User: Fold this.
Amino acid sequence: MSPEYSACSAGSNQSPINLSAGPTVNSTALSFNYQPSSLTVINNGHTIQANVPPGNSIAVDGKTFGLLQFHFHAPSEHTIDESYYPLEMHLVHANTEGNLAVVGVLFADGPADAALAPVWAQLPHTTADQGVAENFNLAAVLPASHQLYRYSGSLTTPPCSEGVRWMVMQTPRRVSAEQVHAFSALVGPNNRPVQSTGAREVLQERAFNIAGNR
Assistant:
């Protein structure tokens, strides 16, 4: 493994992890400010990624993190009570200091997710292709329930950098088998195995102030 990727094997606060019941706190530490936006959808060879223009953000611990992109993993990377889900979405944010905050949304088996349909209609078949999803409703991809798990972790792909604020929504959305197959046919299974939680504390919190059209 390249030296710059050493955290992937030697880090002590790696992601993903198994999530289970822990201390519950009512918190206003997380709020969303998502607006309809035009997305550029790419296939980077490892996942399908939608790049987001400036103007969408979350506030965490009094700091603003701008939404850069969101991408997907199938099956899920995080587990809840050791159960995997067919699909997981990661909304990746950064602040002006370069710190990262990622919101994870899990998807359980069910009917097709209409909120994802504009992106799925633009799925690029090769790394040379890209699509555009116009006026995509970012707020609509969040679950109706705002309970979440929060912990300190890492990127799930090299360089596996630690110090990432992770917030995984506790209630899954629904996705159809056809939607999962359309994704997996392009990039195949792309989830990292669950890592040791170690001494880390996982909190259950509630997000507030989700702006934007639902």
Summary: The helical segments are 7-10, 117-120, 177-187.
